[in-house]
């Protein structure tokens, strides 16, 4: 470096960068992540508002795909988000055995601890994957369970199915489900689309069956019936806050706050909150604030 | 700064270091891509069908529109042009979302959205191409006693065809690149592999969608280039090397 100006600029940059990186970690903002569907966007917003009210500095990053979000948390780019026990068990930890809800939680808590992730207390909201049909249509076809559906497809009924991109390729998704129940959607009958659209597609009768989430408010609002998972293919998907251990150690007050929130959540509550966003078209911000006030979590 | 003189050495070393494992990994990637071949074939056909329908409809609608705008009697050209420019500025994703809110979910709104996106560059190029025809040619044709319609068919369009074709080629290649977004509104196509790849952080699956799309866009442009060579008269093709 012969140019003195350049050398000085370089030195200054180094000093600034060092100063920037060496700020104490306790002052670092907490990064709250979330996936790309309503319930997750809602949980991200609720968590952000709650923690901000408790004096934390929060950076919100929502709308990610499951695997990307999990990868980001393992890499330390995301500090906390709400994960489902079944997703971690089957998709991230590649466990193919089926457990009871309690054992599923215990198993993922143990497996993820090795990766520096802490599972706090699970909520009572089990947001399992479900297949849904319009109630009148299901009645007419006499389909109550996924076994009935498999039977109908095997007997040659050309039923159309809508699901999101993720479900199609997950290890707890469509292909293993088809295998377990012994049926096959024809390629042309399989409509893949953005997550939230499957409900609209089913409501508008553009498909006959749609992938839905059990706690989604649109299931009762649009008069859908959920097909019974009579072979118990889907595990429990208890909505649970998962935090990086490093962050939890640096912020010990985080666990009780999130556990108190988790305590307030069950399936009807989640369905009601989701419905106020998807059916009543209220803003995430408003729904989150009202919920936090009503449940007494913030004053 | 003398640095530049020596910088090729580390560059070469880096390139070698990157390429050697990349070559070995190349075979893995090809194997990985092969497992998606039935998906790739199915979705490519879905995607190209959408592009073909949207593209054909766009040509049918946009070329006459461009001709209309270029007629001297048509004083609203500037207004239409502004509308087209605004249309161009709308993100393609927003265009698809708007189509969905009107036409519902599936292939039809996807084709409609792609149609609008393809319409604009073709109409613009038709207009500009016709305007760029030398005045002298038109005056000569008028002097020969041709009617305006004859002038359009025999003088203006042949001379503008090169520019119009450039518009069609660009528009369709871009449409192929836009078509994966159709997945988001249930239109199918190679977007299925790309978006599933993103959601599941599966790089091979993402490539299995992205590489065919790039190839299809290049192929579309090449095929249209061949058609162009057949259709556009040699005499009016600018800079063909022998001018």
UniProtKB/TrEMBL annotation, chain A:
The keyword Ribosomal protein does not apply. Residues 29-294 form the ABC-type glycine betaine transport system substrate-binding domain. GO terms for molecular function: transmembrane transporter activity. It comes from the Bacteria. Residues 1-27 form the signal peptide. Keywords: Signal. InterPro entries: ABC_Gly_betaine_transp_sub-bd. The keyword Signal applies. GO terms for cellular component: ATP-binding cassette (ABC) transporter complex. Pfam families: OpuAC. This is Substrate-binding region of ABC-type glycine betaine transport system.
TrEMBL record, chain B:
It comes from Verminephrobacter eiseniae (strain EF01-2). It is a multi-pass membrane protein. The chain crosses the membrane at residues 40-67, 93-116, 160-185, 205-227. GO terms for cellular component: plasma membrane. InterPro entries: ABC_transp_perm/SBD, MetI-like, MetI-like_sf. It is found in: Cell membrane. Residues 44-224 form the ABC transmembrane type-1 domain. The keyword Signal applies. Its main location: membrane. Belongs to the binding-protein-dependent transport system permease family. This is Binding-protein-dependent transport systems inner membrane component. The keyword Membrane applies. SUPFAM superfamilies: MetI-like. Keywords: Membrane, Signal, Transmembrane, Transmembrane helix, Transport. Residues 1-24 form the signal peptide. One of its GO terms (biological process) is transmembrane transport. Pfam families: BPD_transp_1.
